[in-house]
Hints:
Elements: H1 14-35, H2 42-54, E1 59-63, H3 66-76, E2 84-88, H4 94-101, E3 105-109, H5 120-125, E4 131-137, H6 146-155, E5 159-163, E6 171-172, E7 175-176, E8 183-187, E9 201-205, H7 208-218, H8 239-249, H9 252-269, E10 284-285, E11 291-294, H10 298-307, H11 337-345, E12 346-349, H12 357-373
The chain binds pyridoxal-5'-phosphate.
Pyridoxal-5'-phosphate (PLP) binds next to helix 3 and helix 4.
Amino acid sequence: MPTNTSMKVPLLDLRAQYETIRPEVDAAVKGVMESCHFIGGPEVSALEQEVARYSQTAHAVACASGTDAILVALWALGIGPGDEVISPTYTFFATAGTIANNGATPVFVDVDPKTFNIDLHRLEAAITPRTKAVVAVSLFGQCADIPAIKAICDKHQLYLIEDAAQSIGSEWEGRRSGSMCDFGTFSFFPSKNLGGVGDGGMIVTQNADLAEKARLLCNHGAKPKYHHAIVGTNSRLDALQAAVLRVKLRHLDRWSEQRAKNAALYHQLFEGSKVGRPYHDPRTRHIYNQYVIRATKRDELKKHLAERNIGCEVYYPVPLHLQKCFAHLGGRPGDMPVSEAAANETLALPIYPELTEEMIRYTAQTVREFVDNA
Length: 374
Ligand SMILES: Cc1ncc(COP(=O)(O)O)c(C=O)c1O
C-alpha cells in the first residue's frame, strides 16, 4: 500500500482553480458591484451570446439553474399532464424530477453499459402513443449519440431535450453538446466544468420561437414588462454569476483538455489491473466532468480511499426507477440491470484540472492495489 500519509487529494478543489484566475475573477466581481446592475443586463446578455457561440447554437437563454433549464425547456414545448417523457434511469434526479414537476409522467429506460448514456434500442421500445418527448443525458461529460436519438425522435414525432448539465463543450463527431436537438440545457453548478459561484443554468436552441418562449417563461411571461400573455416564473441569472462565468468560459477549453489528459494518465496507470476504466467513444470529445471507474467492492474501496485522504463519490447510488418518490410508477429491482449494476459498482475519482501528476499517481496506485487484492 502507498504510505504517503501527507498527500491529500480532494475530489474537487475550487480554491486551486480560483488561485489561477483570481485577478480576472476579482475584477469581474468588482465591475458588477460598481455597475450595481445585478439581475440581467449586459453581463448576462454577453454570456448568452458567448455560450451560444461556444455551443454552436443560434440562441441561448440564461436561467437560475440547470434544473430550471430542463423544467423551462419542457414547459416551452407544452409538456404537461397526460404526457409521457422518456428519461434514462441512471442520471441525476433533476433529469426526471423536472418531468414530474411539469405534471408529466417520467418513463425510465436503462443505459448502455459502456457509456452510461441512454440505450437506443430500449429507448425506442419504451415509446407509446402518449410519449411526447425524450430527455437524453450526456453523462459524466461524454456526449450521447444525439443524432441517432434525434432520428428515433423524428420517426415518432417526439421532442428531444439534451440534458447537457455535465457536458458543455463535449462533441459528437464535431457537433457540440446541446446543439443537435430542440433544446440543450446546461448547469453552472460550481462543480461543473463551467461552474459559477452559485447556482445558474442556460437553455440553448437553434429555434428562434422556442428561444423566445423560454425567455418569456423565465421572466413571468412578461412582454412588455407588466403585460403577461402567458404565465411564467422567475428563473433568471444574476449578473455576478454571468460576469464570473464569462471569465471562466475563456479558460474552459484548457481546463477540459487538462481533464482529458488526467483521464489518459489514469487510463495508463490502470492498464492491466482489474479496475474498470471508463469507456471513451472515439466519436466524442469527452470533457470528463467526472472520471468514473467500476469496482466490485466499491463501498469498501470508497472507505479505503477516504482513510487515505482521497476524495471520491458515488454518482449515483439509486437509479431513478427505484426512488421512493417514483414508486407509484411501479419500478422494481431487476427492471434495469445495467443501471442497477452501475449504481453498485461505479466510483468517481478526482479529475479536476489542477491535480498534479503526483496526486494522480498516488490515487491510481491506491485504487489499483486495493482492487487487485480484493
Ligand atoms: C445530469 C444533470 N442534470 C441536471 C442537473 C441540475 O443542475 P443544477 O444543479 O444546476 O440545477 C445536474 C446537476 O448536478 C446534472 O448533473
